[in-house]
Amino acid sequence: MTSARTQTWSGYRESIGDRSPLFAAMVSEWGISTALYPGCYLDLSPSTAIDDVTYVDNDARAARYFATEGLAESELGAAPASTARRIAFIAADYTTSLPIAQGSVDLIISLYAGPVWDHCRPYLAPGGLLLANTSHGDASVAALDPDLELVAAVHHRDGRYRIERAELDAYLHPKSAVPVDAESIRRSGRGVAYTKTAFAYVFQLRQR
């Protein structure tokens, strides 16, 4: 039973919008089956499409939500992920070592959560994907990483998500002529302003 103090994904979804169509589109495009979502708070949307998702947050409200027996499953209801769906939650700071095998996930999600890529990259499988936006500079740091290749831009308008995979050379060009580097982005905690923007970007880890 949900206590008066336990906030829910449905309530949180009203404030941020439903990201479920985004993850459905990503599964359709890349066949993702496992994901890691650091700094998830109460956003359960990846589990509407991805069979195995590990959520990480050190917020007590998130811990309370995921610890409430049956709550996440009831909120997902008849969502179309398979009957093999797995939802795991780790109450931790994602900048610390996590009990996750290296190279074990298909997707790392970095949305409004800080420097996820710097700390969670060991968990991504070769050829796996990073979904990141420029909040806190994570997508901008990723754009400078030679181990990553931009494979899509994600657009969000009127509650709809669209994945663009063509003409990607138009993205990630800074407006300013002043050179940027990963360390300066990390220090400022702000993303680079680009001439053409997107809600988020999808990068693929190159296979060595």
Describe the structure in your own words.
The chain is an alpha/beta fold and 208 residues long. Helices cover 25% and strands 25% of the residues. The chain is built from 7 helices and 8 strands. It has helices at 9-16, 20-30, 60-67, 71-76, 116-120, 138-143, 182-188, and strands at residues 34-38, 52-57, 86-91, 105-110, 124-132, 148-157, 160-164, 200-205. It has an 8-stranded mixed β-sheet with strand order 3-2-1-4-5-8-6-7. The longest helix is centred in the N-terminal third of the chain and has 11 residues, at 20-30. The protein is globular, with a radius of gyration of 17 Å. The termini are far apart. The relative contact order is 0.15. The mean pLDDT is 93.
Kindly list the characteristics that best describe this protein.
208 residues, alpha/beta, eight-stranded mixed β-sheet, globular, 8 strands, single chain
